[in-house]
Amino acid sequence: MAVPTPNQLASRPIGPLAPLLAAAGVGLLGATVAFGGAGWVPRCPIHAATGGWCPGCGMTRAVRHLVHGEFGAALGSNALLPLVLVASAGGWWLWWSTANGRPAPRWLLRHRTPLWVGALVATILFTVARNLSGTPFAALAP
Fold this sequence. Notes:
Elements: H1 6-10, H2 17-35, H3 45-50, H4 59-67, H5 71-77, H6 81-99, H7 106-130
Helix pairs in contact: 2-4, 2-6, 4-5
């Protein structure tokens, strides 16, 4: 069975609608984080099992601070927030574009492997650094 191309997916009725539905879902989730109580957020299973901070630890608090305009506190909760926001916005824009029949940018197709590897290396380094107690990097912990 062949994998459908983005243009074939865009020709389906749900194709162009899917990115909008996903954006609405993310907006609803953001509103829940911003205005809901903090008690509903589950504990990180990695932190609960190991005591170490995973790269996502503090991200919910960071989004909550960001929505309330507390940019310093957002970065203090998780310094990866800007990278995650840029990557998420870029991924959504690429999804939206291809769902509407536009080709992916050539530079992205040429450089997608280095981008993925760079993001993976940055995430690993961030995770290791935030778990080094007694160093200046310990401030990266939420």
